[in-house]
Amino acid sequence: MSISTMRAGPSRLLLMLMLVVLLASLVLAQTALAQQADPGREAAFAVPAVDADLWRQVKSGETGPNYRDSRTDSTYNLINESGETWRQIRDRWVSPFGLIAVLGMIAVIALFYLVVGSKKLDEPRTGRKLLRWSLVIRSLHWTVATLFILLALTGLNLSYGKSVFRPLFGDGAWAAMMSGTKLIHNYLGPLFGVLLVILLLRLLGQNLPKAHDLQWFAKGGGLVGKGHPDAGFANGGEKVWYWLLATAGLAVIVSGFVLDFPNYGQARDTMQWANIIHAVGALGLTAVALGHIYIGTIGTEGSLEGMTTGYVDESWAKEHHNLWYEEVKDQAIPEEQLAAGQQASRGDEPAPRSS
């Protein structure tokens, strides 16, 4: 089996996942608009027995057990001011702008692909391979990536699914869908957090900033000017993605643990701020992850095979990571020798030669 054949399956799978995200995002775009068009709908549904006179009393600022309470730890008043502040931040800012970020990234990727297209190698492949990713790193990467996609899709459903699926399928189906979504999100979240921290620690040494990273950014990763900028094992863009995961990603993990385990005495305002931090970080990372997925799959020839087989062609290494290539070029292995070694390790019989 050739290297190109081995990477065809995962490439199609990731392309299909991107299309699913695109279609889901287009549908979910109606959610933010619906929420903004009728901001009182959620409150009216939550307290349907409240009439106009009672709302006037609430609006006047009257406090008491039945009206308004300014305490953040209140759990039994009609309106809690900190809760209303959280709802306003969520509905007016986080939800609509998060969706704009995700849809905007999809639009930018689609436009870039239509105008520029996939980045092909400047030089023909040499057929000599360099080991880039070990089996342990690849296993960690694909596990974390799978969990990230599942958490992103379930998180989008938790944030926007109410206005989309409830009218389509009715209360019963919607309730079952949201129950399953919540279970998946809550139970896979901690596992994702633990594995992401392990992956970040394994890759820390390869993602420390270097002086040549500034040149990489100045040339737009090779889009500006002639020639490709210098890059070590990780280029400037990959390091930015790493440090986003190491900062915003950890904020999402910590806030997610606060939300996932409310039985450790968190105050109401702590849970509210954890929810805002979690949503902002998760939506931002989802938007950037779409760019990472595009560049690592159909956007750049030869990138995906590194994470599927562990090996990259010499031409790819020299073009995209020239400083790393100079360090390891003596370790290049002919593709035929690599394939024979993999076949021997599996104990396969050699394929018969055609006459």
TrEMBL record:
Q: Name one Pfam family in it.
A: Ni_hydr_CYTB
Q: What Enzyme Commission number does this protein have? A: 1.17.1.9
Q: Where is this region: Disordered?
A: 336-355
Give the main EC class. oxidoreductase
Give one GO term, molecular function aspect.
formate dehydrogenase (NAD+) activity
- How is the protein disposed in the membrane? Multi-pass membrane protein
Q: Which UniProt keywords are listed?
A: Cell membrane, Electron transport, Heme, Iron, Membrane, Metal-binding, Oxidoreductase, Signal, Transmembrane, Transmembrane helix, Transport
Q: Which residues form the Cytochrome b561 bacterial/Ni-hydrogenase domain?
A: 132-310
Q: Localized where? A: Cell membrane
Question: Entry's SUPFAM superfamilies?
Answer: Transmembrane di-heme cytochromes (SSF81342)
Q: Which cofactor does it need?
A: heme
Transmembrane intervals: 93-115, 135-160, 187-205, 240-259, 271-295
- InterPro entries documented for this protein: Cyt_b561_bac/Ni-Hgenase, Di-haem_cyt_TM, FDH_cytochrome_b556_subunit, Formate_DH_gsu
Keyword Membrane listed:
yes
Q: What is this protein called?
A: Formate dehydrogenase subunit gamma
Annotated organism of origin: Halomonas aquatica
Q: What is the phylogenetic placement of the source species in the record?
A: Bacteria, Pseudomonadati, Pseudomonadota, Gammaproteobacteria, Oceanospirillales
Family membership noted in the UniProt record: Belongs to the formate dehydrogenase gamma subunit family.
Q: Which residues form the signal peptide?
A: 1-34
